[in-house]
Design brief:
By secondary structure, the protein is α/β, with parallel strands linked by helices. Helix content is 34%, strand content 26%. The chain contains eleven helices and 14 strands. The chain has a six-stranded mixed sheet, with helices on both faces.
Length: 315
């Protein structure tokens, strides 16, 4: 069996009376893009800081690449790249000099470091800006520089904490494409974001944190199967009686039915062919209908049902 890149067992971190991490367990496998989701205060950043041994903790174990992580585990830390939410570059250094400086913390051999810096510049498409200072870059380009500084030394494990905050859609797409490319080249990635569509787009597996606990983990599809709500259906029906609504409520897998201003709204709870069953009922009753909408559950629906919070509200 393959050794997990990260294995956390029964992690507990307290700040006096506050339990920030509450018996947290997780395994992250080699080659994954692992999404770590949670509202503000759920313990994501604290967990990351414990993984990096930047914080001590009260109980539990953390292994990285099969070894116990300690503050002086420099052999492990050399294999990790970190891109935090707050941009951390030097304003007095150019784009090239910034990447060279951070790469130099890990790679001492000059020719190899030069090669790595050039590859990082090309990877984030900042070659035309190599002599620019950070204050001259747009928000999106600055984020790309931040990523280049974190990945230039070619780490096996990359931690990306909200890397697309406050960037334009084009830069966001470039960053997401770059993350997938890094993964294809062999990096295991931990990805945190408040943008559900990003997580669903790139993450192979996802854990949801709340109150310092891992409350659910799996692929996006597996998480969606864990919740009560499934398909949402909207149908424009000019005339519906209360008797019709009661009949629809008795159909299989119907969770909630409402009707207002000629629109029938139905929330289903699992099952297949729900829309077919509803349309067949309307046809049997001779009821005409116009536009029909069907929407499968989103990752945000999963998050809302499991935590009672809208993740996008915390962005």
């Amino acid at each position: 069996m393959q050794t997990p890149v990260i294995k956390i067992e029964n992690l507990v971190k307290r700040y006096k009376d506050l339990i920030a991490i509450d018996h947290f367990n997780i395994e992250i496998r080699e080659g994954e893009i692992f999404g770590l989701l949670g509202p503000n205060g759920s313990g994501k950043t604290t967990t990351i800081n414990c993984i990096l041994s930047l914080l001590s903790f009260d109980k539990g174990t953390i292994e990285v690449f099969g070894k116990t992580m300690r503050p002086d585990s420099y052999d492990l830390k050399r294999q990790i790249g970190i891109v935090m939410q707050n941009v951390a570059v030097f304003n007095t250094l150019t784009v090239y000099e910034n990447i060279d400086y951070f790469c130099g913390l890990y790679v001492k051999e000059k020719q190899l470091r030069k090669k790595y810096v050039e590859e990082a510049l090309a990877f984030v498409e900042l070659e035309p800006f190599r002599k620019f200072y950070p204050k001259k870059l747009s928000g999106g380009l600055l984020r790309r520089l931040n990523i280049a500084c974190g990945i230039a030394h070619k780490p096996k494990l990359i931690i990306l904490d909200e890397p697309t905050v406050a960037v334009d859609p084009q830069s966001r797409n470039k960053i997401l494409e770059g993350i997938v490319d890094l993964n294809k080249k062999g990096a295991t990635i931990i990805y945190t974001s408040h943008y559900m569509e990003e997580v669903e787009q790139i993450c192979t597996r996802i854990a949801i944190m709340d109150g310092g606990k891992n409350i659910a983990a799996g692929s996006a599809d597996e998480l969606k199967q864990m919740i009560k709500k499934s398909e949402k259906i909207k149908i424009e029906v000019p005339m519906l009686s209360e008797t019709h609504l009661e009949d629809i409520r008795l159909l299989p897998h119907i969770l909630h039915v409402s009707y207002a201003d000629g629109q029938l709204n139905i929330q289903c709870s699992g099952g297949r062919h729900n829309l077919v069953h509803i349309l067949e009922y309307l046809q049997r009753q001779g009821l005409s209908f116009d536009r029909v909408y069907s929407e499968l559950p989103t990752l945000n629906d999963v998050f809302l049902e499991m935590t009672g919070k809208e993740l996008r509200d915390h962005a």
